[in-house]
Amino acid sequence: MNFLKRLLTGGLLLSIAFIKPLAQSTDTLIVLTEVNITENRLSNFNAGSTVYQPDQQLLMQKATLGLDEVLQFMSPMNIDAYGVGSSSINARGAGSNRTPILWNGFNLQSIANGGTDISTLPLLFSDNVKMEMGGNSALFGSGAVGGVIYLDNKANYNDAKKSFLTINGGSFGRFNGASGIQYGNKNYSGVLRTYYQQADNDFPFTGDYTSGDETITIDKDLPNANMHQFGVMSNNHFRLQNGQNISVHLWYQDVNKQIAPTIRDLGRGRTSDAEQRDQAFRAAAEWKAPIKNGALTVRSGLFSTETNYQKPSSADTTNTTGLSSINEAELDLNFTQWLKWNLGVNYTYEKAESSSYEGEKGRNRIASFTSFGINNKQSGTFVTLNGRGEKAGDSDFTITGNAGITQNIIGGLSAKAKAGTSYRIPTFNDLYWSSAYQNGNPDLEAETGFNYEAGLHYQQSFSSTHIQVQATWYKNSLENWISWGELEDGSWTVFNQDKAEIKGIELQANASRSFENGSAGFNINYTHQDAVDPDTDNLLPYVPKSKTAAAVFGEYSGLRLIYAHSFVDERYTSSSNSTLMPKYNVGNLSIEKRFEGEVETALTFKVNNIWDENYQTRQHYPMPGRHFLLGIQLSLN
Question: E-assigned strands of 240-315?
Answer without folding.
Answer: 245-258, 275-291, 294-311
